[in-house]
Amino acid sequence: MTLQKNCFHCGEENPPSTDFNVQINTVSQRMCCPGCQAVAQTIVDSGLTSYYEHRSEPAEKGLLLVPDVLLQLEDYDIGKIQEDFVDNVVDNNENLSTTTLSVEGITCPACAWLIEKQLRSLPGLVFINVNTTLNRAVIKWDQQQLKLSQILTGIQKIGYKAYPFQVNKQEAFYTQLTKSYLQRLGLAGLATMQVMMFAIALYADFFSGMEEQFIHYFRWVSFILATPVLLYSAQPFYLNAWRNIRNQTLGMDIPISIALLGAYTASGYATIVGQGEVYFESVSMFTFLLLLGRLLELRARRKASESSSNLLRLLPSMATLIEDPDNLQIQSVIPAKTLTVGQYIIVKPGQTIPVDGLILKGASNIEESMLTGEHLPVSKAQNAPVFAGSVNITSQLIIRVEKVGNNTLIADIIHLQDNAQLNKPKIEIIADTAARYFVAALLIVASLTYISWSFIAPDQAFWITLSVLVATCPCALSLATPTALTCATAQLNKQGILIKQHHVLETVNKINHIVFDKTGTLTKGNFKLLNTQYYSHYSKQECIDLAAQLEKNSEHPISLAFKKQQKNSIVLNDVVNRPGQGLQAKYLNKTLKLGHAVFCGVENNINSKELVIYLTLDKQLLASFELGDELRPSAPEILSYCHHHNINSTMLTGDISLKSEEVCEVLSISQLQKGVTPQQKLQYIQQLQKTDKVMMIGDGINDAPVMAGAHVSVALASGTDIAKNSADVILLGEDLNKLAALHKMANRTTLIIKENLVWAFGYNIIIVPLAVMGYVPPYIAVLGMSCSSLIVVCNSLRLLKS
């Protein structure tokens, strides 16, 4: 055996005493040094051996020896670049990174399953979920063990291309893919028309006397016209089938590819030998109809996924920066993404606000429908918060930048949308698994069909088998659930209802008991100090100042009532918040308490329907405060909806005042549990869940444990962060009627998923026996297969209509 004289990678002479080899396309190639060996092995491991087939000259030694495509992937590991698309999260006490990737080449759930299966073997990859409707993948990984470029390389290695999701790139990809489909479709359509003319000439009765030489001529012309259709137009089906075969999985494009290649090969052989039937028109028409179905499905999926992309388009790319809020003459227009916290910007009427911030000067009406789903403008003045993506309507505003980029509310909403896709519902997992087994069963049925018809009618065996391969459609089965869930989630987002967990829409339609918190949920939480009584040498204002200073350590709405009345700051030590009871601290080396009578150790001797809390110092009563709150205008309507739909209601509150009974009476709430601690709330929910499907609605710290324990939990956007983190759903705005919209959407989604699955199963149960018995012509088979998937997607798109 003669050793290679020159390095296969760089072309330099190989030292005689070295032995560095890399297996490239099943051939062992010799390298001159460990560096070339390492680079060559990287290229092979990344699935890029075609680099060696198409290069015009050897790589330069000692330089950037890795092809550009790999170097571009390594750029994604740079921290500064990752700031735009990577978030850091804490999951099970681990610091992880998460991002959303756009993945090119996904055509069916088998592709998603393949990507997930292959990447889960990477050390450091904690989670991956591929959404076939959106063509996106959500991943979580440990930066210490795994680089983002390695994940992208892993996806590329199995035949797909991935990159961080960005709206402009997604738009470019969609435009390019649509253009590619149209070009392939156009060629297939033209060829089909031409080949069909020759097919009519060959098979119509009035041409039965045609001379043999013309028959051969028409066949050869059809052969030539069908060849570019098979090699170019049908290429996407072969590429997907090859990916599946190479990675030892089954996808719908495998039987399609077998059918197309089989029909073309058989017809080509008949043309060359001059014997047998030819079906070049079937090959061309199959390809045309399949591509048409894929194009229509692509556009339908695009419509389903564009909602989340539209949120990103709301953000302006430029902002008007001012150095001094008192001098508006010096302005500069800069990219919005370069703004930093503490800077000042001007937003003129009609412009979109680029950041989250506080109004420093001016007052205006702000349109926030893209965040809350409520189209009436909101009046905002000095010190009011404004959010990126909202539109300034009436007057010029000077805004202090508080949050930029991934920290804005709109970025949080998009992040929640992505998180909602993190896990697949059980019904989707079952459907995907069934679809993969379905393809295997299809190939077995097709084989048995061919064998059987070979004995019954050998001349029809091939074409009947072809119909069996093409007619069946597991894609419709796999698309039934994800397309419906994606459309439903997008429509709810438009209405200001953010779904955080995958199971919500499955579970909400089974809910028969809703548990409401009172303060800040059924009521506005805008407490007003109605009356103050003081019982010691401390003055009324001193008592209010002490209470206000304590309440600064609470996120409860009560704190706002005291904040407005405070005049002097007081130093307190060892402040402790007891959720559902009150607050305590050390003041002048004594224990200062503010809260319910039992917590403060005093008698509740004030007869009031409003909330009464007490202030004590070492159990000496200093003051009592009577606080008033109002019902939300939407509260009666949502309770009426519950009664109309036979949904039981309970109010679960830590408030022990008579206000609780009044609220229950006004709203006709079935049950009341008042004066309960967070632990007692959780115990009540757990007991209730033994017989009922329970939804919990809350907004405070004391609601967090019970929200985590309920079947479905809903938090208001105005609530505390801990409540929102515990919730499965977040309602933007203050309209409780969104709960009714959520319930209706869950019912509609469940119904449409059932319709999709019934159609997918029903179609295949009917079409397979008919195709096996020879009653389904090939062109009807391909029409049925394409229409089956399209019907499922279009049925799901009904959810986008409000």
From TrEMBL:
GO terms for cellular component: plasma membrane. The chain crosses the membrane at residues 185-204, 216-234, 254-272, 278-296, 434-456, 462-485, 757-776, 782-800. Residues 97-163 form the HMA domain. It is a multi-pass membrane protein. GO terms for molecular function: ATP binding; ATP hydrolysis activity; copper ion binding; P-type divalent copper transporter activity. GO terms for biological process: copper ion homeostasis. The keyword Membrane applies. Keywords: ATP-binding, Cell membrane, Ion transport, Magnesium, Membrane, Metal-binding, Nucleotide-binding, Phosphoprotein, Translocase, Transmembrane, Transmembrane helix, Transport. Belongs to the cation transport ATPase (P-type) (TC 3.A.3) family. Type IB subfamily. NCBIfam families: ATPase-IB1_Cu, ATPase-IB2_Cd, ATPase-IB_hvy, ATPase_P-type. This is Heavy metal translocating P-type ATPase.
